[in-house]
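Lecture notes, continued. The same structure-token format from the folding unit now serves as the input rather than the output. Read the line below as a description of shape only.
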């Protein structure tokens, strides 16, 4: 699966299976061995026709948010290495990256000065970590303290703005339940 730090599990990307008739198969359940936990997947490689699962004819970019890419790519099962289930084309991943860029474009924009400041901070902290790791750790501790101070205040004001869950979700680029969880987590920081 493909992920971004910013959106986490709200936007996990993968190559989904498409059957001959153009539909998506039901989730495949993988038994990792002993235990009661089963892993669920819709990834293309799980639909090779074995274990009573249908055989995927094509794969397409997909996201855990429900988004599906428009382009489908034929799977040549004779050319697939079953021990290294990498999709033979990079196009689905590129389509998912475009989806993530579209999600990012719909989120609340950061002021230009803040974006520049964050980029500068990233560059300086990375350099400091290589040159003077203890100073970098001290700076990280200061950022953690600042985050613990600002996050509850921002969450309080965001909740009091009376915005719907959907507006909050779009502004953060996550699902409504993820947005509510994030606000609760931030509100409880201290």
């Amino acid at each position: 699966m493909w992920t971004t730090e910013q959106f986490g599990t709200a936007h996990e990307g993968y190559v989904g299976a498409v059957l001959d008739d153009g539909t998506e198969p039901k989730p495949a359940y993988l038994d990792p061995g002993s235990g009661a936990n089963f892993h669920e997947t819709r990834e293309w490689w799980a639909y090779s026709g074995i274990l009573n699962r249908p055989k995927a004819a094509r794969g397409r970019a997909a996201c855990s948010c429900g988004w599906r890419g428009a382009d489908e790519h034929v799977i040549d099962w004779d050319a697939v290495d079953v021990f290294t289930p990498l999709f033979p084309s990079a196009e689905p991943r590129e389509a998912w990256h475009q989806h993530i860029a579209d999600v990012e474009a719909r989120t609340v924009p950061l002021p230009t000065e803040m974006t520049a400041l964050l980029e500068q901070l990233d560059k300086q902290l990375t350099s400091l970590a290589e040159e003077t790791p203890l100073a970098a750790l001290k700076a990280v501790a200061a950022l953690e303290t600042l985050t613990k101070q600002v996050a509850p205040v921002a969450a309080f004001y965001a909740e009091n703005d009376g915005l719907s869950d959907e507006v909050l979700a779009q502004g953060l680029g996550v699902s409504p339940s993820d947005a509510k969880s994030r606000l609760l987590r931030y509100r409880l920081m201290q």
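Point for the exam: The chain has two domains: 8-106, 112-187.
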